[in-house]
Amino acid sequence: MDLRELTEKIVKSLVVHEDAVSVKEFPSEEENTCVLEVLVHEEDIGRVIGKSGKTASAIRTLVQASSALHENKYVRINFDKF
Questions:
Q1: What is the pLDDT of residue 17?
Q2: Domains plus CATH for the chain?
Q3: Is residue 48 within 8 Å of residue 7, measured between CB atoms?
Q4: Sign of CA dihedral 45, 50, 52, 54
Q5: What is 26-57 written as a DSSP string?
Q6: pLDDT (tens digit, 0 to 9) for every residue of the chain, 82 residues total?
Q7: Helix (H, G, I), strand (E, B) or coil at 14
Q8: How far apart are CA 30 and CA 32, in angstroms?
């Protein structure tokens, strides 16, 4: 499972509107860096970010740990609503 799929699976397990979740991977100017953008329904952004950003931080930690085990890339994840 690649980093995009893992992130999508984690986020979909947290939200109400699963069909509105979109995770896209973008190239980065920095070497060994992966940039992921997560878009969720505006009603679900609070669930994904969590109180004081703790849920978003936990998602980043899980994806970064998976990357360290498999691809050894630094991962940046941006969360947004639409």
A1: 97
A2: 3-81 (3.30.300.20)
A3: no
A4: negative
A5: E--SSTTEEEEEEEE-TTTHHHHH-GGGHHHH
A6: 799 999 999 999 999 999 999 999 998 888 889 999 999 999 999 999 999 999 999 999 999 999 999 988 899 999 999 8
A7: coil
A8: 6
